[in-house]
Design brief:
The complex is a heterodimer.
Chain A lengths: L27 E5 L19 E3 L5 E3 L9 H5 L5 E5 L2
Antiparallel strand pairs in A: 1-4, 2-3
Chain B lengths: L24 H9 L6 E6 L2 H6 L11 E4 L4 H17 L10 E7 L1 H5 L2 H9 L5 E6 L39 H6 L5 E6 L3 H13 L4 E6 L13 H10 L6 E4 L2 E4 L9 H6 L13 H23 L1
Helix pairs in contact in B: 1-7, 3-5
Classes of the chains: A mainly beta, B alpha/beta.
Chain lengths: 88, 307
């Protein structure tokens, strides 16, 4: 028996639609003030979930299905355009 | 329900994984993997990143990924490197195709348990990049001390109390151990400086042979700070010279970030619950000792640069 005859291991195909909704974890909810946001994109990379992206007007937009509400985006925002409020 | 996660950032590691809120590890993985367009094979040593990104039956990885035990991250990477070379010889993979092997390991899997296989792989000059995210304890199992835990820190196995001030031993100087293997590139980075980390990852991924990156990763659970603060605390670690940013390339040392007036170490310690006991009476001695250690390490580093 050589390595070529070994069966392939279990394969998990990636499907984002089936991913767990980590938005359920949220205690504090970030809200972007679209007027003060200048669209610099500094909150994108430090976000542990990569759930912030530009909307159609080039302002930060948060995906609440996945956002865990850690508040890192609010601390790194140079314009203080992201405010944390209690999740309701 | 609309799903508009950042397509560019999540192209190799998807969101929906279960790292703690406010954890910087995914940012490290995304930044390092985002620094190359070549196909990558990820080896993931047991640790926070492994348990949180692959909860059965889900996987957050969109690239080929292998889980290996704590002690054999280096050996697994060496095996993949050998397999790629063998398949190229057999013409199963085109000769000019570049496949990058990237290992992600925590500080437990690097400083302590995985050190021998890392050492072996470095010594055999295998072609891989080893990224250690250093959160300074075994966080995946609940916060036991590791070789990376700093002097005076309160952890699960070195609790601070009436008779103890936390960990009594100084942290291991892993960078010196790694550089002693005559490798080409080694760098110390910080998750709070993602641009610096990206430059270093890019530099490292373009080279051949063993490369090493040590990245500081403030942990909200063990270091005990609010979830929103990992960037601020990471910055303080560098601004107090506790975690200088520097790289080693072809026998030369280079400091990437320096200030003339580093902040006193207390500013960094005060932000974290694991050093809370040092601010009670009797803790001044430990802080003075830590400050002395930081200054000595910085002086040694500066001497390396000038020589």
């Amino acid at each position: 028996m050589n390595w070529e005859s070994i069966e392939e291991g279990a394969t998990i195909t990636h499907d984002i639609k089936k991913s767990p909704r980590t938005g359920d974890w949220r205690y504090m909810k970030p809200a972007v003030d679209k007027k003060t946001c200048i669209g610099c994109g500094q909150c994108f990379a430090p976000c542990p979930e990569a759930c912030i992206d530009y909307d159609s007007e080039r302002k930060a937009d948060i995906d609440y299905d996945i956002c865990k509400g850690c508040g890192v985006c609010a601390t790194v925002c140079p314009q203080h355009a992201i405010k944390m409020t209690k999740n309701t | 329900m609309t799903l508009i996660v950042n397509k560019q950032l999540s192209s190799k590691l998807a969101p929906g994984h279960s790292t703690c809120a406010g954890c910087g590890i995914p940012a490290i993985a995304r930044t390092v993997l985002g620094a190359t367009d070549d196909p990558v094979v990820v080896v993931n040593v047991t640790g926070c990143l492994e348990v949180t990104s692959t909860l059965y039956p889900y996987s957050a990885w969109k690239v080929p990924w292998i889980h290996s035990a704590f002690e054999n991250g280096g050996a697994t990477a060496a095996g993949i490197d050998g397999a790629v070379k063998a398949l190229k010889k057999k013409n199963r993979i085109p000769e000019d195709k570049k496949i990058k092997v990237v290992v992600f390991a925590g500080d437990g899997g690097t400083y302590d348990i995985g050190l021998q296989s890392l050492s072996g792989a470095l010594e055999r000059q295998h072609d891989f990049l080893y990224v250690c995210y250093d959160n300074e304890a075994y966080m995946n199992t609940g916060g036991q001390r590791s070789g990376a835990t700093p002097y005076g820190a309160d952890t699960e196995t070195t609790p601070a109390g009436k008779k103890s001030f936390g960990k009594k031993e100084k942290r291991k100087d892993l960078m010196s151990i790694v550089i002693a293997h005559h490798l080409k590139y080694a760098a110390q980075a910080n998750v709070a400086y993602l641009n610096d980390l990206k430059t270093k990852a890019k530099k490292a991924l373009e080279m051949e042979g063993p490369r090493f990156l040590l990245v500081l990763q403030p942990c909200t659970n063990l270091w005990k700070f609010p979830t929103s603060q990992y960037v601020n605390i990471g910055r303080l670690a560098t601004e107090t010279n506790f975690w200088p940013l520097w790289e080693y390339f072809d026998g030369k040392y280079k400091i990437n970030w320096a200030t003339e007036n580093p902040k006193p170490l207390e500013v960094f310690l005060k932000t974290q619950g694991r050093f809370k006991h040092l601010f009670k009476p009797g803790g001044e001695k430990v802080i003075a000792e830590m400050q002395k250690e930081v200054e000595e390490n910085w002086k040694r580093l500066v001497n390396f640069v000038e020589v």
